[in-house]
Specification:
Sulfite Oxidase, Chain A, domain 2, Immunoglobulin-like, 12 helices, globular, binds ligand MTE, binds molybdenum atom
């Protein structure tokens, strides 16, 4: 009988291991990539690079032959090339794990190159590929380990008969080529099936997430904000400290601190966004985004602060907000007597408890849709968030807000209150030195000292600086845009050689001098005077 050359089953399994692991690599990368731009997904970047590298004659051939299906054909050929490579890597890894692993890393480097050479790529775009390669390696290892030893199946069937009778002990039964139902192979196929399913799920979830992100990003890009019915008064000249090194009076959106509990930024389409207003009110109602666009919007300069900010810390930012007064939302709902709190909830379940009275006392408490002339960035609550001057963010600044319940502090508690923070969170008066930086090395002579102080909704009316144990000196206050936003200051210091401590303290217009007593952020905000140490060269 003629010897039929058969591919040994373990080699088929090894190729399958390679295929499945390639799927795991790409699926995981696709899922992680949902948190990055589209071109950070190795599959998308490879596709783009594939198109760039296709020779013109082949492109023309593809267009001539396949017409508008040319891209599809290109991608299918790319898929075939990748599948073949994946099978080869699988076999390689089965023969010699180190070579297989090296081949995966090498292919990972090729994918990384495709990602990083795309226009506008940043190093962080490599994270999806890196995580994907790691997942692919683990998958490959798991599968290769489950392929039974090659010796058994590598022997062609008809060769068994050719082995001299005495070569095998007589009690060894004739060896059957293993089949897929062989119990020793079940573990391999079960693992391969599980991993393949996981890869498909990860890839599908990643694509869906990325798709939602692109829909929402597109909606944001196309959004035109209406003009404010009541504009913020123009910024007075001189709101900026004259000292170099002090941050900008208006914090650019991309530099604005971000604090939230969201693992993935919620993706809310303004077309379907709704705000439910209910609870202890005479009239419950729901409003949509168009209602907000059509309403009389106002602008305000309001500084936002996080309760977790330490003395001298950077968890504060100042922006021009555009939004609809929460006072108007509430007057439409008509709160019932006894209500003293509005519990706001975001689409991802975060809650904040805001005193009702603060939302009704006439300050610029907003359902904000604009931040520094743009729609809210996705990370800062797109399409709608709350902004309330004078309260820390954790009790007032709910991003991606979708629900307002009028209730009582006695009946409901909010996210951070349940975790040991206070139920109410009025901002504490704070001041910080931003220039010079701590541990700066300075030249003797005139040094421009400067920074920021805030006491939202009360306003800052005095800032003083102390050098070592000297007398407190008045700093020069920058212009005040509103009592709801921070106030910068500057101070000219004649620096003499040596190591010095600079200290700052501020007064607000209602409570006077900020307290010197040090307190930790938990449960209701840090207090204490900020100081920095600097060295003046001799
Ligand atoms: N949905 C949601 N909104 C939220 C939070 C959150 O975790 N989830 N954190 C709050 C806290 S603690 C602060 S300090 C501010 C920060 O807003 P920002 O990230 O725009 O600076 O958002 C508030 N709004
Ligand atoms: Mo916060």
């Amino acid at each position: 009988m003629k010897t039929l050359k058969r591919i040994p089953l373990p080699a088929v399994e090894a190729a399958l291991a390679g295929l499945v692991s390639a799927g795991v690599l790409l699926g995981v990368a696709q899922l992680v990539g949902a948190w990055f731009r589209a071109l950070a997904s190795p599959l998308v970047a490879l596709g783009a690079a594939f198109i760039d590298f296709t020779p013109v004659w082949l492109k023309n051939f593809a267009v001539d032959t396949f017409g508008t299906a040319d891209k599809l054909v290109l991608f299918i050929s790319m898929g075939v090339v990748m599948a073949v490579l994946a099978c080869l890597v699988g076999v390689l890894a089965w023969k010699r794990w180190v070579w297989g692993a090296l081949a995966v890393v090498l292919l990972g480097v090729v994918m990384a190159a495709a990602v990083i050479t795309r226009a506008g790529a940043v190093p962080a775009d490599l994270i999806p590929t890196a995580v994907g390669v790691l997942a692919g390696l683990i998958s490959l290892r798991l599968l290769v380990n489950r392929i039974p030893a090659p010796a058994v199946a590598a022997v062609p069937v008809n060769m068994t008969a050719a082995v001299p009778a005495g070569a095998a002990p007589p009690n060894v039964p004739a060896q059957e080529p293993p089949t897929a139902t062989d119990p020793s192979r079940r573990s391999f196929f079960a693992t391969a099936g599980l991993l393949a399913a996981a890869a498909v799920l990860a890839g599908a979830a990643g694509s869906a997430l990325a798709g939602a992100r692109r829909t929402v990003e597109e909606a944001r890009r196309l959004m035109r904000l209406p003009a404010a019915a009541k504009k913020a008064p123009p910024l007075p000249a001189g709101v900026q400290s004259t000292a170099q090194g002090v941050g900008p009076y208006i914090t650019p959106n991309q530099d604005f601190y971000r604090i939230d509990t969201a693992l993935a930024v919620p993706m809310l389409d303004p077309k379907t966004w709704q705000l439910r207003v209910h609870g202890m009110v005479e009239r419950e109602f729901t409003m949509n985004f168009q209602d907000l666009l059509d309403a009389e919007l106002i602008e305000s300069y309001t500084t936002l602060t996080c309760v977790s900010n330490v003395v001298g810390g950077s968890l504060a930012g100042n922006a021009k907000w555009l939004g609809y007064p929460l006072k108007n939302v509430l007057s439409r709902a008509r709160p019932l007597p006894g209500a003293d709190m509005v519990l706001s909830t975001s689409s991802d379940g975060f809650t904040a408890s805001t005193p009702l009275e603060v939302l009704q006392d006439g300050r610029n408490a907003l359902l904000a849709i604009g931040m520094n002339g743009e729609p809210l960035p996705l990370e800062h609550g797109f399409p709608v968030r709350m902004v309330v001057p004078g309260l820390y963010g954790f009790v007032s600044a709910t991003k991606w807000v979708t629900d307002l319940e009028v209730t009582r502090f006695a009946d409901k508690t909010a996210y951070w209150t349940d975790r040991g923070w206070s139920a109410k969170g009025p901002v504490k008066t704070a001041s910080r030195i931003e220039a010079p930086r701590a541990f700066a090395q300075l030249q003797p002579g005139m040094v421009a000292v400067g920074g920021t102080a805030w006491a939202q909704h009360r306003g800052i009316d005095r800032v003083q600086v102390q050098v070592d144990d000297g007398a407190w000196q008045d700093a020069v206050l920058a212009a005040e845009a509103s009592v709801d936003s921070w106030r910068q200051w500057s101070y000219r210091w004649q620096a003499e050689p040596g190591t010095h401590t600079l200290r700052v303290r501020a007064w607000d217009k209602v409570n006077g001098l900020q307290t010197e007593q040090r307190a930790d952020p938990i449960p209701d905000g840090a207090t204490g005077w900020h100081s920095v140490q600097v060295t003046v060269q001799g």
